[in-house]
Structures are given as C-alpha cells and as structure tokens.
Amino acid sequence: MSGFYQPHPRFLQAIDCVIFGFDLEKLKLLLIHRDFEPQKGKYSLMGGFLKESENLDEAAGRILEKLTGLDNVYLEQFNTYSEVNRDPAARVISTAYYALIKIDESDRDKTQSHGAEWFDINEIPELIFDHNSMVENAFDIIRHKSKFYPLGFELLPEKFTIPQLQKLYEVINQVKFDNANFRKKIMSMNLLVKLDEKEKEGSKKGAFLYQFDKEKYDKLIQSGFLFEI
Amino acid sequence: MSGFYQPHPRFLQAIDCVIFGFDLEKLKLLLIHRDFEPQKGKYSLMGGFLKESENLDEAAGRILEKLTGLDNVYLEQFNTYSEVNRDPAARVISTAYYALIKIDESDRDKTQSHGAEWFDINEIPELIFDHNSMVENAFDIIRHKSKFYPLGFELLPEKFTIPQLQKLYEVINQVKFDNANFRKKIMSMNLLVKLDEKEKEGSKKGAFLYQFDKEKYDKLIQSGFLFEI
DNA sequence: GCAAAAGTGTTGAACTTACACCCATGT
DNA sequence: ACATGGGTGTAAGTTCAACACTTTTGC
Prior knowledge:
homodimer; alpha+beta; Nucleoside Triphosphate Pyrophosphohydrolase; Arc Repressor Mutant, subunit A; 7-stranded mixed β-sheet; 3-stranded antiparallel β-sheet; globular; DNA-binding
C-alpha cells in the first residue's frame, strides 16, 4: 500500500504567522528580530516547521502559542508559498496564516523573550525571504474580509466603545467614516450589547462600552443575515 | 548554509485541481474516474505531485494542461490540506487550486483519455480522501468571489448573451434573479461590448451576443470602481 | 394567433450620505 | 466658558425590487 508515491520528491514544510493587533490607535504587526540563523539580525514573521504528528492548523496554533501565550485565537490559513528559491538555504514550502489577537491579552514575557516587537502596519521594515509579500497578501485579505465578517472584534478588547470600533475599521481600510453614519450602521445590526460602564480615557465625556454578541451573530447567520460594514 | 533545517521532516507535496465549467445550463465539475491505484475505480479530482524544479502555480498549470489541453486558464490556489491521515497510503500535503474553464475550448480527446467526466455541481459522487471537502470549499469561494470579481466570464464562451450570463449567476448562487433588474445592473457597469450577432438557439426571438471588455475593467479598477453583482 | 423568451419602463420603498445640532465633562 | 469628542436627528439623493408592459419569432 505504501509504494505508489516512492518516486516523488519530499519537501520541508514551514508555517509562517502574520500576527495582527490593534492598540486602539493603529493596526500593528508582531515581528521577530532574529537572533538566529539564517538571516540573523533581520526581521521576520514568526514561523516554524511542520511535524509528522500534526496538521498545519495545529502547527500554526502551536507556533502562535509559543510566541504569545495565547490559545483559541482567530487563526486562518491564507496562502502557500512555494517559489523554488524563496529560501536560499533550502527548498522550503511555507503555508502562511494570519492571526488576529487582542494585544492586551498577549504574554509580554513570551513575546519579549523571542525578541518580538509590534510594528505599525504602515511602517513594516524589510523582512526576510518573501515575508513582505505575505504581509501584503494577509493585509489585503483582512481588509476585504473585515467588510463581510465580524473580524474586527477579534482585535478589540472584550469591552470596547463605538469610536474605538470605528477607528479600527478606519485604519484597516485607510479611510475616514462619518461617525453618525458608522454608528447607525453598526447599531442597526443589533449585534452589540451595551454595558452600563463608560470608558473615560479617550474623551472628556466618556463613551459607553459594548460587547460583541457572538451567539446572536451565529443565530442571525443561520437565518440568512449578511454582516456588512 | 544548508545545515539549519536538517532535523525537520520532509513531506510529499501534491496539487489537486477543482475544475469548474458551465454548459449554459448547469455548473459542472470535471472529475477523474480512476483506473489507477490507490482507490482504483472511485472518482477523484485531477492531481499530481510537485517537482523539485517548479513552484505550486506551475505544477497546477502543468496538471491542468495535461488534462484539458488548456493553457492560460483562470487558476487560483485556495487551500492546503494537511490532515495527518488524509491519504491513507502516505503522509501527503495537498495544495488545492480551482480552475474556471470554457468547456467549449477544452480538448475532448485529452479529457477522455484520462477518464474524465463532467458532473453537475449538485450531483457530485463520493470522491477519494478529502476531495469532497475541497469541492465544497472551492464552490463556497467562487460563490463569494463571483459577487465582487468578474469570474463569471471565465466560464462563458467568448461571446455570450445576457440571459446566459444571468443563468450562470443563478446556478452559482442557487437563486433566481429578476431578468429586468439583472440586465440593468450588468449594463450599468459598461463592461460589455454589444455585438451585431444574435444567438438563436436559446429562444425564438434570439438574444444579442456580448463580449466582456477586460481592458475597460482593468482601467475602471484603477480608478476605484467596484464590480458587484 | 399564441406561447416563450428577450428586452424596456415605472414606481414606491429602502437605504445612503451629508451635515446640522445637542450633550457631557475636564481644564 | 469653551473645546472636545460622544451621540442624535433629518432631509435629499440614490439605489433596489417588484412587476407591468412591449417586441420578436417559431410553431
């Protein structure tokens, strides 16, 4: 039974993670300052190699946990990179994932011990191999996908204000929205639960905090509802 | 330089193609009746293994050409499947592509010599391994993507009528559209060139033929236009 | 002449957009 | 008291969905 595939070549299989975060001001990316070979000293995405005992999703989760301490994170495969010389040291196929994490929940000790730093999405340094392409592709995908799926809430704290949510969509789409209209659109979906607390950092008046109601969203989806920003 | 990655395992890397076509009535998929092991006798997607000398896009193009004789086809990677036991014969990672082809241009001799047959998308038989999941995933993606990108024209002959275009979108989305409104929406985009010919098979009156103007589309995109059905 | 599909026109409802305006509060 | 960002209201413009209607032709 195991003889059919003998003549075909085998490849090293890597995983790279494009990790997005939002600090309530800017969209950020978590990058590694490499103190290991190859390309020691440069910046890169967090990555690793696939093991015999796991699938790619599991490997991506393992790698992300190692860096951030976070489990149960929004993590999605988006492309597999396979240029023959993408990695000059060896033929490596790399499957890329993007992760959306809540910065405030990540483990600072872990990220620091890996030499990881947050970069503004508009100020990404030169990265190794094809990692800059991976970042661009991932950003394009979340920009498009965030319009039709409630991805945004993965990047915000559990409790957030409407202006914070608006700011997030503005930095993702690199546009300005009218605050009155943005609010109306979001509210008309009935997906947010208003809390009795206010957030007072951002303004003198303070803004009410809300939570995303995932159960309600799942129910609405069943009945044909389309999320759209 | 080549010693860094030594301890990591290597994997067989396959490519599988979900090949869509439209016969002006139904959305179809090109499947192989396997007369080879493993799983001889069952149906599967067309696939193959990655070579040392090529990347995945090139491999997918090669495999598609072998089956259909077609070059320069709309072909896009959409997911990499890596379950540990997805192929019981060996650990194989498979990157899946979907192709949109014009049935009338494919090489019948080639497809027949590979034992390939067209199946209605709603009547797909049981396929080997995880190929049924691949088909479902690919269909979901083209359904979504065809709303915002002019994918449909890849499936139609060079010259087509508005009712044919409408029928295509109806079978992709499994809905019925109002013909007056569909026509208005398409026409308002100014992307079709009306020809002086009529198509007389489909009806007594006959319908005018049109061509998709790719150059105009590219120009409009530059200036911020959004295609949407 | 009638059935059937191609193609046009009209209308009210729904949704967007722009913008004026009020509210609460720290300084 | 006033500047600042939070939050509400409204009117005009645009798009959308439903459907009535006309056209052409093979039988």
